[in-house]
C-alpha cells in the first residue's frame, strides 16, 4: 500500500519570524527533515538587545545537517516582503512548497500590558498585535499563493492560538488570532481548486525564550493571563480556567520544535486537502500522526479531561480518567457561536 506520507527532501519552505521562539523551532525541524528552509526576522546577527538571531538559527539548522537561508526582512514592510519572495522565486526556480506565517511582533507588549483594558491602551496597540501577526500573514500568503497556484501544490500554515476562540491576554490578541483562523478557512476555499492547502495551527503553551522569561519574572497579573469568562456562553471559559490554574506547569511542557514536527507531518501528508481550511492543534496532530516532542514525551493535550483534572489538582481523579476522553470539537464549535 502506498504510504500516506512523502518526504521533505528538496522541498522549499519559508518560515517567517524564525530568529527565536516557535519560528526557530519550526525551522530546526524542517531543516532536519531535509527541506531547504528560508527564514526571516529583523535580527540578522546576534546582539545584546534581542534574544536570538537568524544567523544563530541558520547555524543550528546546518549543524543538524540541514540547509537554511537567513533573510533579514521586516514583515511590516511590504517592499521587504516582495523582495524576499522574488529572491525565493529566482533562487528556487519559482518553487515554494510550504509557507509558515509565524512572525509576531506583539509578545513583549502584551505581557507588559496585562490587565490593561483596550480603551486604556493607545489605538496603535492594535498594530503591535495585528500588523505583523495578521496583516503580514495575508501579504505573505498572497505572494506565496501566486507561486503555489502556478505549481498546483503547496501548504500555508498560520501559527495561531486558542486565543482564536476565547478571551486570552487582551482584546486585540484575540481579534488577531480569530482573524488568522478565519484567513485560513476563507483562503482555503479559493485555493482548493488549485490543490493548495491552508491551515491554522494552534500550539499549546510553548516554552519559548520570551515566555519563559515572562513567567519567571512574576510580573503583576501573570497568574491572571487567561481571564475566565463567567457567563454561560463561556463554558469555554471554564475549560480555559483549568489551563490558567496550571499555567506554569503547563508552560514547561511543549518545546518550540513540537510545532515543527506537526508541520513536517502536515507537509508530507498526501491527504492534506482534507484538513485544508481547518484549525489543527499540535497535541492532536501528535496523537493522530504518532510522534512525540523532542524529549520523547507528549505535551499535554489542551482538550484532554485527564490533563484538565491533573492541572487543577484533582490528581486521583486524573489518575483514573482515561486519556482518550477529550472535549469534542462540536462542543468547542457551540461555545464559539456568534449569534
Ligand atoms: P517570539 O518569541 O516573540 O518570536 C517572534 C518572532 O517574530 C521572532 O523571530 C521575531 O524576530 C519575529 N518578528 C517580530 N516582528 C517582526 C517583524 N516586524 N518582521 C519580521 N519578523 C518579526 O514569539 P513566539 O512566542 O514564538 O510566537 C510566535 C507565534 O506563535 C505568535 O503568533 C504567537 O501568538 C503564537 N503562539 C505562541 C505560543 C507560546 O506559548 N509562545 C502559544 C501559541 C501560539 P525579530 O524580533 O528579530 O524580528
Characterize this entry briefly.
With 339 residues, the protein is an alpha/beta fold.
Strand tally is: 7
| Small molecules bound in the structure, each named once | NADP nicotinamide-adenine-dinucleotide phosphate
Helicity range of the residues?
40-55%
Report the top-level CATH class.
Alpha Beta
Strand content: 5-15%
Radius of gyration: 19 Å
Biggest pleated-sheet summary: 7 strands, parallel
What does this 3D model show about the protein?
With 339 residues, the chain is an alpha/beta fold. The protein has 14 helices and seven strands. It has helices spanning 21-32, 54-63, 78-91, 107-112, 125-151, 171-191, 209-217, 235-245, 247-251, 256-267, 282-289, 305-311, 315-320, 329-335, and strands at 12-15, 36-41, 67-72, 98-101, 154-159, 196-202, 279-281. A seven-stranded parallel beta sheet has the order 3-2-1-4-5-6-7, sandwiched between helices. Helix 1 (21-32) packs parallel to helix 2 (54-63), helix 1 (21-32) packs across helix 10 and helix 3 packs parallel to helix 5. The termini are far apart. Mean pLDDT is 88; it is low at 226-235.
Amino acid at each position: 500500500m502506498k504510504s500516506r506520507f512523502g518526504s521533505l527532501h528538496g522541498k522549499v519552505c519559508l518560515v517567517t519570524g524564525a530568529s527565536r521562539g516557535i519560528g526557530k523551532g519550526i525551522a530546526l525541524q524542517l531543516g532536519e527533515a531535509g527541506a531547504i528552509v528560508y527564514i526571516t526576522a529583523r535580527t540578522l546577527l546576534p546582539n545584546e538587545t534581542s534574544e536570538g538571531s537568524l544567523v544563530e538559527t541558520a547555524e543550528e539548522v546546518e549543524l543538524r545537517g540541514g540547509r537554511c537561508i537567513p533573510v533579514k526582512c521586516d514583515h511590516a514592510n511590504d517592499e521587504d516582503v516582495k523582495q524576499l519572495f522574488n529572491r525565493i522565486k529566482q533562487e528556487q526556480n519559482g518553487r515554494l512548497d510550504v509557507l509558515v506565517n509565524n512572525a509576531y511582533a506583539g509578545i513583549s507588549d502584551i505581557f507588559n500590558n496585562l490587565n490593561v483594558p483596550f480603551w486604556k491602551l493607545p489605538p496603535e496597540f492594535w498594530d503591535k498585535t495585528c500588523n505583523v501577526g495578521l496583516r503580514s500573514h495575508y501579504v505573505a500568503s498572497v505572494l506565496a499563493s501566486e507561486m503555489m497556484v502556478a505549481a498546483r501544490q503547496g501548504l500555508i500554515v498560520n501559527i495561531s492560538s486558542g486565543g482564536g476562540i476565547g478571551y486570552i491576554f487582551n482584546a486585540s490578541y484575540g481579534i488577531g488570532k480569530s482573524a488568522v483562523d478565519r484567513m485560513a478557512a476563507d483562503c482555503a476555499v479559493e485555493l482548493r481548486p488549485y490543490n493548495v492547502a491552508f491551515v491554522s495551527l494552534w500550539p499549546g503553551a510553548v516554552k519559548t525564550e520570551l515566555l519563559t522569561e515572562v513567567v519567571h519574572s512574576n510580573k503583576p497579573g501573570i497568574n491572571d493571563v487567561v481571564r475566565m469568562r463567567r457567563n454561560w456562553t463561556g463554558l469555554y471559559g471554564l475549560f480555559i480556567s483549568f489551563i490558567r490554574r496550571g499555567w506554569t506547569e503547563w508552560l514547561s511542557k511543549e518545546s518550540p520544535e513540537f510545532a515543527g514536527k506537526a508541520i513536517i507531518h502536515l507537509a508530507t501528508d498526501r491527504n492534506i486537502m482534507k484538513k485544508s481550511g481547518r484549525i489543527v492543534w499540535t497535541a492532536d496532530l501528535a496523537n493522530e500522526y504518532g510522534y512525540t516532542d523532542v524529549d520523547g514525551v507528549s505535551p499535554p493535550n489542551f482538550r484532554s479531561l485527564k490533563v484538565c483534572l491533573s492541572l487543577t489538582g484533582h490528581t486521583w481523579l486524573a489518575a483514573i480518567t482515561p486519556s482518550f476522553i477529550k472535549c469534542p470539537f462540536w462542543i468547542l464549535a457551540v461555545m464559539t457561536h456568534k449569534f
